[in-house]
Specification:
alpha/beta, Alkaline Phosphatase, subunit A, Arylsulfatase, C-terminal domain, four-stranded antiparallel beta sheet, 13 helices, 16 strands, 30% helix, binds calcium ion
């Protein structure tokens, strides 16, 4: 620490007793003690600022369309390349991000379910953080224009969820309690509010927390003005599991999914293109935020977390669109953390992490005790790259397809993902086992292959053990 070094060099120079020098040293010690007491110590000891960026329905394979975010956040921190949302639906996943809890514990199963559990933002606010929301909070809040900003946010630029409330152009926004019409492109408008928040945060005595959550690239995705011609020569979206002819090995209810029509396939290609185009403005806005933080001399003491609230299907396994279901396109998300204070060397980390790990990480970095009800693990030991730190070997994934319009009669599932496999149990249907390392497109269900009997038995036992801790769910109509 600098102050220690300064004090030592003064002491080292002493010959006889020199009152003048003694006074200087005493003054320095007092300054240091006072600074530490007031929380103005070096960045290493101060509570960090927190910038949490959540994109909406962005698949893990769409980071290629965000080169600035890739280079400014992912390449300068940790890329978690096996990152999952434990429930792949907007409001349940966002509730898991805010609470660190599984959906079966926070009980937000549908997008319309209200979140009643405590969130990390409430704790940060109580701890003195200057808190802001710019974008989408929860699908279930606000529900109506008269709903006020959540009280734990000092700065609130919120949108109503749904196709009209979150539209890409002229989005109506609640600006600190006042519903206001805006003209222009949503991501640009939200970027400008986020920049305003950062400038205000600079003036605050305490660190900030900002949840920056634009709607992009959620469908119906619309590119920013000027981006309409981007990727005009992009090849068609056609991964190996796109609209497969052979659905054997899939649960019965999936085998009855119709083969996608030409119209559906054409619509998927448009969606893929428009999503990727809409990511460009999000990418540019994130670059602006990082540049602003740098210009305000706040970047190095800000932990920047980037993830999507869920992935989505675009024709894989015959799903025309949508999320919720257990397969990789839906559950796996882009996820990275930039924080040079702890992450000394950029790297890719393949241990399993989830959206439930964000809240405990933020609690720990802010110096707030992690509440008992949190299910996730703090990522701090991974950020520090502590090789002997204990880490989870499997992660529970769960989904309740209630109220899904595009697929009828699909049952709930629970699954265990470990380093190599995912084992899935679907209510009233067959189970599945996929070797993700060797079959990333999940085409080959190994459940009946005797070579994998031990893998199945072990994962079944883990899922059974997890189930013992899951309370019976209140199923809503
Ligand atoms: Ca979403």
């Amino acid at each position: 620490m600098n102050s220690e070094r300064i004090v030592q060099s003064k002491i080292g120079g002493w010959g006889g007793f020199d009152w003048k020098r003694y006074a200087v040293v005493l003054l320095l010690v007092l300054v240091v003690v006072t600074a530490v007491g007031c929380g103005l110590s070096s960045p290493a000891n101060a509570r960090p600022n927190i910038l949490l960026i959540v994109s909406d329905d962005q698949r893990h394979d769409q980071m290629q369309f965000m080169p600035r975010t890739q280079s400014l956040i992912f390449d300068q921190g940790i890329t978690f390349d096996e990152a999952y949302v434990t429930t792949s639906r907007c409001c349940p996943s966002r509730s898991s991000i805010l609470t660190g809890m599984f959906a079966h514990n926070h009980e937000v199963i549908l997008n319309s379910d209200p979140l009643t559990k405590n969130t990390m933002v409430e704790a940060l606010k109580e701890d003195g953080y200057y808190t802001g929301l710019v974008g989408k909070y929860l699908n279930s809040y606000p529900l109506a224009p008269e709903d006020p900003p959540r009280p734990e946010f000092d700065y609130w630029i919120g949108m109503i969820s749904g196709p009209d409330g979150s539209r890409y152009f002229d989005t109506p926004l609640n600006v600190n309690g006042q519903w206001t019409e805006h003209s222009g492109y949503q991501t640009h408008i939200l970027r400008d509010y986020a920049l305003e928040f950062l400038r205000q945060a600079k003036e605050q005595p305490d660190p900030f927390f900002l949840l920056y959550a634009p709607y992009a690239p959620h469908l119906p995705a619309v590119p920013a003005p000027g981006d309409e011609q981007l990727y005009a020569d992009m090849p068609a979206h056609n991964p190996p599991n796109f609209n497969p002819e052979d659905m054997s090995g899939k649960p019965q209810w999936m085998q009855s999914l119709p083969y996608l029509t030409e119209d559906q396939t054409a619509s998927i290609q448009r969606d893929w293109l428009h999503q990727n185009q809409s990511l460009n403005a999000l990418d540019e806005s994130i670059e602006s935020l990082i540049q602003e933080l740098d210009g305000l001399d706040m970047l190095d003491n800000t932990i920047v977390i980037y993830l999507s609230d869920n992935g989505m299907f675009l024709g894989e396994h015959r799903f025309p669109i949508g999320k919720i279901y257990v397969y990789e396109e839906s559950m796996r998300v882009p996820f990275a953390v930039r924080y040079p204070e702890l992450i000394k060397k950029p790297r890719v980390e393949s241990r399993l992490v989830g959206n439930i790990d964000i809240a405990p990480t933020i609690y720990e970095l802010a110096g707030i005790p992690i509440p008992e009800e949190v299910d996730g693990w703090s990522l701090v030991s991974l950020l520090r790259d502590q090789p002997f730190a204990k880490w989870r070997e499997h992660l529970l994934l769960e989904g309740w397809p209630l109220g899904v319009a595009y697929v009828e009669n699909s049952p709930p599932f629970q699954a265990i993902r470990n380093g190599q496999y995912v084992y899935v149990e679907t209510e009233g249907d067959i189970s599945e086992l996929y070797d993700i390392e060797n079959d990333p497109y999940q085409l080959n269900n190994l459940i009946d292959n005797p070579d994998y009997d031990k893998v199945v038995t072990d994962l079944q036992a883990i899922l059974a053990e997890e189930r013992e801790t899951i309370p019976p769910l209140r199923v809503r109509e």
